[in-house]
Specification:
The complex is a heterodimer. In chain A, 26% of the residues lie in helices and 34% in strands. By secondary structure, chain A is of the alpha+beta class. Chain A has 2 domains: 140 residues, Protein Transport Mog1p, Chain A, CATH 3.40.1000; 32 residues, no CATH class. Helix content of chain B is 13%, strand content 28%. Classes of the chains: A alpha+beta, B alpha+beta.
């Protein structure tokens, strides 16, 4: 019985995902096109000092596309201290509650263990794209950032906050379908 | 008898008929009390003890610390310096950080820079080469150029001049410097803007920051459309569309642009979100970045100005910077 339930679940999930794949659509975001599920919608938003467009997902999350000189760069780091250092700062009556520490601080520092997101570079449509992917579902930022797009001073950052697992996976796959509209210039 | 007379010369109660024990060094062998002058000083008055009348007054010179006020004493401070904690590394005898060309001290309380600028005060520094905590307060001088005479009565700049607190910038400010392996975790106590509203670019001070109120700001790319603000990151010039006053987004837009001037890029929430969301808050990292753009991780207690501290935007005349900014961004005034 349990096996039957599992098989039914598997079939439903597979059908669901395959439907998603079948019903993808291409959205023209002006600077680029991206393939997203049919029920994701492009919406108009007012940017303050940069070109901003957005995509609304069925669960109500917004994927922001921000193109300008001062879009986000994804340069988060944090220092990992040793226990000895923390004890020293506590003895100096300094505030240590926001600090990270571990028994292997150098390794955790290099691996970014205490960051909320993973980072990597990928090649998408011949552009070097920096990925930022949240480690946990429903928490953190998932997005990409492209520096000096179209050889201008502008940076394109596309991101969303606190996505659930399904939408996060779909968004990451969608990023690989981006085709930049090369007619754009400053 | 002579000894007793010498001792009783020092008895302050003699006129009341009391004999008190008087401490002497020679037990009365020598006369040790010489306060027998006919004119004595009582407070600021010179008093003639035989004539029973005032024969002179001492004028106190309160400006000159070397003046000798009450009781002919050598120059002394009237009280401890109330700002001594803020200037613990400076002698109370120094003036204007020993740099009277860079700093002025109009009321004797603290040295201030001559020119308008971003002024950062750092105090209470503690820590070591890898972790630093300080108390920091930042003050920006801003000139708002309102050449079209727009009504600012419902905005944050509703007077001809005044000070506004950017309360969203107050709080814990953290930045990690990987290159130097040092983390700062400062207490950003306040970020304030001392502003004045003028109608002409000529009225802008030499080291002022400038906010231009303009009619239209075009989009960045080929898209047709409209933006409502523009600013130089870590620079001194910003622009805000006048239309934002009507739809009540002016304060949000203006503070967002000042955030860029203070060195912040866009973020996924709060004040620096790329869209107008009525939030004026910043996060710990952004506040850390704000402090970093004024003082480096190793800079200790003291007062710093952005122009003296290596600020990038002070080499060109401000009027030239504004005109270049407007033409580069195709902004119509």
């Amino acid at each position: 019985m349990k096996n039957l339930k599992f098989i039914i679940c598997l079939i439903v999930t597979t059908t669901f995902i395959s439907c998603y794949n079948e019903k993808n659509k291409k959205i023209d975001m002006g600077l680029y096109t991206i393939d997203v599920p049919y029920d994701w919608k492009k919406i108009n938003v007012q940017g303050i000092d940069s070109d901003v467009t957005a995509i609304l997902t069925p669960s109500g999350d917004t994927i922001i596309s921000d193109y300008g000189k001062y879009s986000q760069k994804f340069e988060e780091t944090n220092k990992v201290f040793s226990k000895k250092q923390i004890l020293k700062y506590e003895a100096m009556k300094m505030d240590t509650k926001d600090l990270f520490w571990s028994t292997t601080p150098e390794i955790d520092q290099a691996q970014g263990t205490f960051l909320n997101e993973y980072y990597m570079y990928e090649n998408i449509d011949n552009y070097n794209v920096k990925f930022r992917i949240s480690k946990k579902n429903n928490k953190g930022i998932t997005g990409i950032s492209v520096d000096s797009l179209f050889k201008t001073n502008n940076r394109l950052t596309i991101y969303s906050k606190n996505l659930n697992k399904l939408e996060k996976d779909i968004l990451i796959n969608s990023f690989y379908t981006i085709k930049f509209n090369k007619n754009n210039k400053e | 008898m002579r000894r007793e007379k010498n001792i009783q010369a020092g008895n302050p109660f003699a006129q009341f008929g009391y004999k008190a024990k008087i401490a002497t060094l020679s037990k009365g062998k020598y006369l040790e009390f010489h306060d027998l002058d006919s004119i004595v000083t009582i407070g600021t008055v010179r008093w003639h003890v035989y004539k029973n009348e005032i024969v002179g007054r001492i004028v106190q010179d309160s400006i000159n610390p070397d003046a000798q006020p009450i009781g002919d004493r050598a120059g002394r401070w009237m009280s401890p310096d109330p700002l001594s904690e803020e200037f613990s590394s400076w002698s109370p005898y120094s003036f204007s950080f020993n740099s009277p060309i860079v700093f002025k001290d109009p009321d004797g309380r603290a040295p201030l820079p001559y020119n308008d600028d971003i002024i950062t005060k750092v105090s209470n520094k503690r820590g070591d080469a890898h972790y630093v905590q300080r108390d920091v307060s930042i003050k920006m001088t801003l000139t708002v150029v309102n050449s079209s005479g727009a009504d600012l009565s419902k905005t944050m700049f509703n007077k001809t001049s005044g000070t506004v607190q950017l309360s969203g910038f107050s709080g814990n400010a953290q930045k990690d410097f990987r290159g130097n392996d040092v983390t700062t975790n400062d207490n950003l106590k306040s970020v304030s803007v001392e502003y004045k509203v003028v109608s002409s670019l000529n009225d802008v001070g030499k080291n002022d920051h400038v906010m231009m109120l303009v009619s239209s700001i075009p989009k960045t790319g080929n898209d047709k459309g409209d933006l409502v603000g523009k600013a130089e990151i870590n620079g001194r010039v910003s622009a805000v569309e006048i239309g934002t006053i009507k739809n009540s987004t002016f304060n949000n837009t203006a503070t967002h642009e000042l955030g860029h001037n203070l060195g912040l890029e866009h973020s996924s929430g709060g004040l620096m979100h790329p869209t107008s969301n009525n939030s004026l808050s910043t996060n710990t990292r952004e506040r850390g970045e704000t402090v970093y753009n004024q003082v480096g991780p190793y800079q200790g207690n003291g007062t710093y100005t952005q122009s003296q501290n290596g600020g990038p935007a002070y080499t060109t005349k401000i009027q030239t910077q504004v005109n270049n900014f407007l033409s580069d961004n195709k902004i119509k005034q």
